[in-house]
């Protein structure tokens, strides 16, 4: 396909049309793969998204979909952190769980996926467990936003407290397991969460362990469900939990065998948690681009 350039003397020599870009005549052309989003939010917002740096901690049923939403919205720098490998029990809810990926690093698989969505995205994909020892390197500046999709409570508390004290905007995804109704999911300040037991535990322990005030906790955006948790079906029995089948189950950090109770979960809920977290960030960036 050729693009005709008009001059005062009439049509100029044709030059090849570059399908990679949808908008010409700008200092920063809009990549064609984000044309439909640009029509919705405008080219300056696409520029701002491409300049943004977001870290996602936890790449499971929530975090993998948060990454998907950010990557397909043109966020230009993603730091994706997870120490785990894909397990057969992940197939019902995790984006990277596909035939042939069991035993493969989740962070590596998401890195490959993001590269195929947006080759211009700058990607960091450390296969690491977030804790007090790794916090400094994993939260290395500059970061515009953090998504907490961690399911280890100790790590979650440390991450949230550190982000608040460093004034890094953070969105915390709370209890997505034991839920089946995505219409019950809400996005509110952490101080306004209710019903969800994990939300209650997080608030209580941030106060007790990190002396965090309600004003500080209100700076944490929370994705939570007000659906009462559903107990596991008493008529269903599984070896998973008594004899861990995860590829790296005996990792000394997080093992099914050490868990008192394993709740059921559904992609119908976990994916919405992740997409709402991503949407909140994209909407903030779009608003900032208009100012």
Q: What's the CATH topology name? A: Rossmann fold
CATH H-level superfamily title: NAD(P)-binding Rossmann-like Domain
Alpha-carbon Rg, integer: 21 Å
Strand order of the largest sheet: 7-6-5-8-9-11-10
The number of helical segments is 9
Give the mean pLDDT: 90
Strand content: 5-15%
Instruction: Estimate the helix proportion, in percent.
Output: 25-40%
Question: Please, how many domains?
Answer: 1
Q: Could you say what the CATH architecture is?
A: 3-Layer(aba) Sandwich
Low-confidence stretches: 1-8
Q: Could you give the distance between the termini? A: 37 Å
CATH class equals: Alpha Beta
Order of helices and strands: EEEEHHEHEHEHEHEEHHEH
**Shape assignment:** globular
Q: Find the count of extended strands (DSSP E, 2+ residues).
A: 11
The main pleated sheet reads as: 7 strands, mixed
Oligomeric state of the chains in view: single chain
Class of secondary structure makeup: alpha/beta
Structure, described:
By secondary structure, this protein is an alpha/beta fold. The chain has a single domain (42-227, 265-290), classed as Rossmann fold (3-Layer(aba) Sandwich). Helices cover 33% and strands 13% of the residues. The chain has helices spanning 35-41, 43-51, 63-71, 106-117, 135-138, 153-165, 197-210, 214-217, 267-290; strands at residues 2-3, 6-7, 10-11, 15-16, 53-57, 77-81, 122-124, 145-148, 170-173, 185-189, 221-225. The strands form three sheets. The chain has a seven-stranded mixed beta sheet, with helices on both faces. Strands 1-4 form a two-stranded antiparallel sheet. α3 links the parallel β5 and β6. α3 runs parallel beside α9 and α6 (153-165) packs across α7. Mean pLDDT is 90; it is low at 1-8.
């Amino acid at each position: 396909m050729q693009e005709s350039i008009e001059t005062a003397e009439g049509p100029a020599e044709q030059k090849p049309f570059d399908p990679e870009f949808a908008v010409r005549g700008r200092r920063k052309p809009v990549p064609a793969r984000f044309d439909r989003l640009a029509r919705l939010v405008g080219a300056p917002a696409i520029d701002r998204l491409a300049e943004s740096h977001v870290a996602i901690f936890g790449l499971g049923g929530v975090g993998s979909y948060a990454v998907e939403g950010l990557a397909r919205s043109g966020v230009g720098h993603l730091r994706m952190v997870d120490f785990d490998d894909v397990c057969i029990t992940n197939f019902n809810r995790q984006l990277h769980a596909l035939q042939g990926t069991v035993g493969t690093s989740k962070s590596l698989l998401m890195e490959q996926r993001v590269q195929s969505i947006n080759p211009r995205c700058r990607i960091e994909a450390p296969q690491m467990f977030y804790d007090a020892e790794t916090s400094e390197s994993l939260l290395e500046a500059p970061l515009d936003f953090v998504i907490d999709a961690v399911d280890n409570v100790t790590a979650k508390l440390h991450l949230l407290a550190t982000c608040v004290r460093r004034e890094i905007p953070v969105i915390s995804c709370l209890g997505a397991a034991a839920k089946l109704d995505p219409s019950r999911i809400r996005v509110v300040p952490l101080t306004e969460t209710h019903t969800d037991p994990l939300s209650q535990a997080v608030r209580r322990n941030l106060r007790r362990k990190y002396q965090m005030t309600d004003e500080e906790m209100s700076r944490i955006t929370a994705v939570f469900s007000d659906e009462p948790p559903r107990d596991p079906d008493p008529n269903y029995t599984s070896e998973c939990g008594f004899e861990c089948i995860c590829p790296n189950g005996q990792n000394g950090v997080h093992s099914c065998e050490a868990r008192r109770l394993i709740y059921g979960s559904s992609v119908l809920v976990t994916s919405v948690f992740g997409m709402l977290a991503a949407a909140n960030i994209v909407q903030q960036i779009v608003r900032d681009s208009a100012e």
